Amino acid sequence: MSRTIDRDALFTACLDADVETSAVYDSYSGRFMYGARCFGLVVQSRNEVTKVMLQLQRARALSPEEIDQLVEDMRADQLGKRTIFYFPGWELAS
User: Fold this and answer.
1) For residue 34, how far is the Cα from the chain centroid?
2) Angstrom distance (rounded) from CA 58 to CA 63
3) Burial class (CB in 10 A: 0-12, 13-18, 19+), 84
4) By the 8 A CB rule, do 56 and 10 touch?
5) Is 40 helix (H, G, I), strand (E, B) or coil?
6) DSSP 22
7) Are the CB atoms for 88 and 30 separated by under 8 Å?
8) Could you give the CA distance from residue 22 to residue 49 in angstroms, rounded to a whole number?
9) 54 and 48 Cβ atoms separated by less than 8 Å
10) Which spans in the chain are helix H?
11) What predicted TM-score, i.e. pTM, was given to this entire model?
């Protein structure tokens, strides 16, 4: 079962959290996903992801239960100096 998050709400949350919108990946396949795709955020620290999630919560773009699920589903892969935090089972909706 795939969960969705509104693309515009995510971009707005990134801007409000001072995270570049270029950090958003639409279609990432992480370790052990075997080709399945989800969205991710390429940032330097987990702190930036936390700020984005707080903005999503403040904007009521996701319910508290959905935020909890998003945090639970979060995974990370190192990309050199940056990290991609990705969310298996979640996709962006237009």
Assistant:
1) 19
2) 10
3) middle
4) yes
5) strand
6) G
7) yes
8) 14
9) no
10) 7-16, 46-58, 64-73
11) 0.92
- Over residues 19-35, the pLDDT tens digits come to 999 999 999 998 889 99
**Whether 38 contacts 24, CB under 8 Å:** no
Distance CA 60, CA 79 (A): 31
Task: For residue 73, count other CB atoms closer than 10 A to its CB.
Answer: 14
Residue in this structure with the two tokens 């403040």, named with its chain if needed? 58
Rounded Cα distance between 76 and 55, Å, is 20
pLDDT digits (tens, 9 = 90+) for 35-70: 999 999 999 999 999 999 999 999 999 999 999 999
